[in-house]
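User: Please predict the structure of the protein below. I'd like the answer in structure-token form so I can feed it into my own downstream comparison script.

Assistant: Understood. Taking the following sequence of 142 residues as input:
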Amino acid sequence: MKKLTIILILFYPAVMVYANPIVNPIPNIGFIIVLGTALGLEVLAATTILYFCHMAFVPLLIALFVGNLIMYFAIFQPILSTIHNVFISEAIIVFVEGIFIKVISRLDVFQLEEFKRLRLTTALIVAAVGNAISYSAGLVIG
């Protein structure tokens, strides 16, 4: 019962935004909740997959969270507002995130002892899985 109460308290502002935006005491709280949840799920999924590729969990989690947040506002939003096509915007961001994962995988701080070189295709697949989870979570929550 406590878990249900906490979930209702966390997601009630998001419901209130869609029900009556005038009553919303905190502007854009629904957007923040949806974006935070979708981004969090994407980062956790990608980090978990990359952990099995012998990458360090905590540094990778932090780097992916910050990197994805920057990519969302600096790349995804401008592309989406220009193109107005979610599929093309998602394809571009998957490619950029795959390159980002490949680049950070080359740094020693993200590698465990048994780490073997990460292939670009693996990085792109991880980025695609993470973005699919993020997109689905955004649809469900939003």
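That's the full token string. Helices lie at 2-19, 29-51, 57-83, 86-105, 120-141.
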